[in-house]
Amino acid sequence: MSAQYQRFLKVLEKWPADKSKVGSDFEPKSVANMSEAKLISGTQVANEIRESLKQKVADIKKDLPDFNPGLCIVQVGGREDSNVYIRMKIKAAKEIGIEAQHVQLPRTITEIELLDKINLLNNDPNVHGIIVQMPLDCDTKIDSHKITDAVHPDKDVDGLHTMNEGRVSIGDLSGFMPCTPWGCIELIKRSGIQMTGANAVVLGRSKIVGTPAAELLKWHNATVTVCHSKTKNIENICRTADILVVGIGVPEMVKGSWIKPGAVVIDCGINVKPDPSRKSGTRLVGDVDFEEAKLVASAITPVPGGVGPMTVAMLMENTVRSASKAAFNLLKKSWELAPLTLRPLRPVPSDIVIARSQTPKDISMLAKEIGLLGNEVSLYGNKKAKIALNVLDRLKSRGDGSYVVVAGITPTPLGEGKSTTLIGLVQALCAHKQRNAVACMRQPSQGPTFGIKGGAAGGGYAQVIPMEEFNLHLTGDIHAVTAANNLLAAQLDTRIFHENTQKDQALYDRLVPRIKGERKFSKIQLRRLERLGINKTDPDSLTAEEMCKFARLDIDPDTIMWERVVDINDRYLRQITVGQSPTEKGFTRTASFSISVASEIMAVLALAKNMEDMKTRLAKMVVAFDRKGNPVTADDLGVTGALTVLLKDALEPNLMQTLEGTPVLVHAGPFANIAHGCSSIVADEIALKLVGTEGFVCTEAGFGSDIGMEKFCNIKCRSSGRKPNAVVLVATVRALKMHGGGAPVTPGAPLNKQYTEENLELLEKGLPNLLQHISNGCSFGLPVIVAINRHSSDTDAEHELIKSAAVKAGAFAAVVCSHWSDGGAGAAELAEAVIKACENSKNFKLLYDNKMSLLDKMTTIAQKMYGAAKVELTETAQKDLEKLTNAGFGQLPICMSKTSGSLTGDASIKGAPKGFTLTVNRLYVSAGAGFVVAMCGEISKMPGLPTRPCIYDIDLNTETGEIEGLF
Q1: C-beta separation of 204 from 228 below 8 A
Q2: Positive or negative CA dihedral for 868, 869, 871, 872?
Q3: What's residue 12's pLDDT?
Q4: Given 632, 746, 791, 953, which residue has the most CB atoms within 10 angstroms?
Q5: Which helix (H) or strand (E) holds 134?
Q6: DSSP state of 717
Q7: Other Cβ atoms within 10 Å of 143 Cβ, number
């Protein structure tokens, strides 16, 4: 007979025969020399857990110093008992290193308002755990179950979401477990009893304690019985338990006679009982009669100091677990990306046939694979999406990947395949070399799509899909730029009209009207007053002179630089007359349209670092000069806020995918002649964070290295502060033969046999063009990898000649690529060369200092990038230079606008001439974008349609819904 059982018999002797009266006369203290059950101190165990969690948080912060686990406690109303629990949780959180915030909401809150608040917290990357304090203390009817299920399962640190409950019910203990039952399990483990094979009885079946406790015991291999208010013979069932977990909600219901000798008793109850002997007049008791039970059980939890502290401890455990998962994702070096399989055909089909032969992933799946959260992705259908800029806040602690720019030699009119090479390279890096890699591309304009060039999604087996959506509308960013640009143009002409037709007082009164007896300046008008040096905020306090100064921009129509835009090639809009209607009272002027991607707003979109920076840049855009020679800006016209509103969604990059299912960020499309010709800074920034320290971001720069790469470095990288690691220079045998004196290359016309047959002599004559472009990359301290884009008519001897010359000229490597016909596999060698080139590439430098004069900056670019001897300004350009310098724009970088068909300013001159003079015809400022444009020769900002544009081939199959004729 065990000592425990003997002790139990002594207790039974004191009990009355009528077991229904058990406890009424029982006085445990009268039994002398009886050993008592071991106390399982929840306070002690909770302290141990907190110390362990404190160390885990410290370990996380070693790797991510700016990372802080975040817990948010949502409370409706202000019940004092809830406040006590909240203070305990906040205190425990702070001790561990968790940032806990208490969100207290009014009793009057409605269900939908509470759900909205929870949704905001779900989408906050700095909040890793959310608990809603129950009960809800509210005046309105709120479904508490709906509220607990509104908390995202990944942040449900209370473990009350139906999904987390369901996981526990099927034995998946990898998620968040409900805190009180989990605390019970930990205490049982501390008791020393083996749960495996033990008989466990759970008294109570509540969602919060009883039911999940039973499930956890079951998955710890105990044999579990659940008792509740409808259970018969509860006492007898309880006496079979080796482990008794009580959460019935009745003070001291379970008596000593209910307990099997030697059982472990876990008391989850907490009740207030009158106690005159105490100062408060009450004391806390559990659902078990502790004084009786401790004489029978082998181990028991006290109340207070038992399960209560464990509930808080396990809440902290769940929060740290959630934060650890978030930290792991930040530190994770490799994506779990599933590439799409390519099955290249021979002969290679058309681009559209190839594109449609591949089934893209659902874009939400790709977003998840590369580490984006659901709230960071706005879906446009299931094949494209926008990425929220706040992803940069979440990933700020993560290191950046290698930064590679893809440029080219001076191209033929057919293009040499920069976009195709970019896509092939990223497919090789990501799908074949298992490196995190993102391609960043410009969005194509409808001009070339419907004109002669066609789309810009790459080609062959290295392209972006779906190509139709890539080339047509995408998510409407170009349309937003068009709308914003033309709003500014409309306001500009309208302002001139109103100033011409109104006297000072009437003009001022209309600009600052009295509405419902109140008159006040808008925010943008206050900014104008500040710029004018008028330190007043009351519209009625301005003098007549100040009113005139404020109201009249006094724009000189001859200096207007702002043009209207449209995203099609429409040559008849190159010069127009506006104001012909009789309603405009004879105030006509000659004006023009540009293509939308030539708008300065597109350049602003591409160069903005964030929403505030974009707004600041928009405000600075100079549209004209006044009659005194002062610049007039978009902010002076009062339109900055409206422009920002139109562009707020357009600033978010677009996510698409390659044929092999690797990520592509498509964003912005500034004209490469009169702007910098690169995709956006924000796309690159997001991509660099997504790929992490061992990944690669490859971005394309328009035209040859003399234009696109030079502007990428001197304008884009100067603005972003980024330092690229390498340049990939795309070359073709065809282009080099053209530069060697080959026959003209004309779109739509068959190639001369010089280009389809081996001709080493002609090729060698064209090599100086390649060597100049290699020198251009080296001038920025970048390793240059020459990518020879293979064409079917090329020969091995021609490739070897190019490779040998490139390496001799200082290229890091020269590689032949077949990505057009083979996809990423055809660019595997190029990928290897890029990886090696980026390993120790930290020598990037800018070509010039902004403090240099505008003329010196132009000269530096012309000499080092083009091979010119000097720069010569026309009389008009000289006047422009003086005006811009006097207006304070002399320290901006230069954006050289010249032909892409030659290193010189003359498209007919091929090869790599030296010592020529580059003539600059005029200059103007893109103050919002942040550069001065130098026009070298005639550059049209409005292309025209050819005799037979692509329009003839583009159609919609009304039976299948497919778009036909794109390429």
Answers
A1: yes
A2: negative
A3: 42
A4: 632
A5: none
A6: I
A7: 12
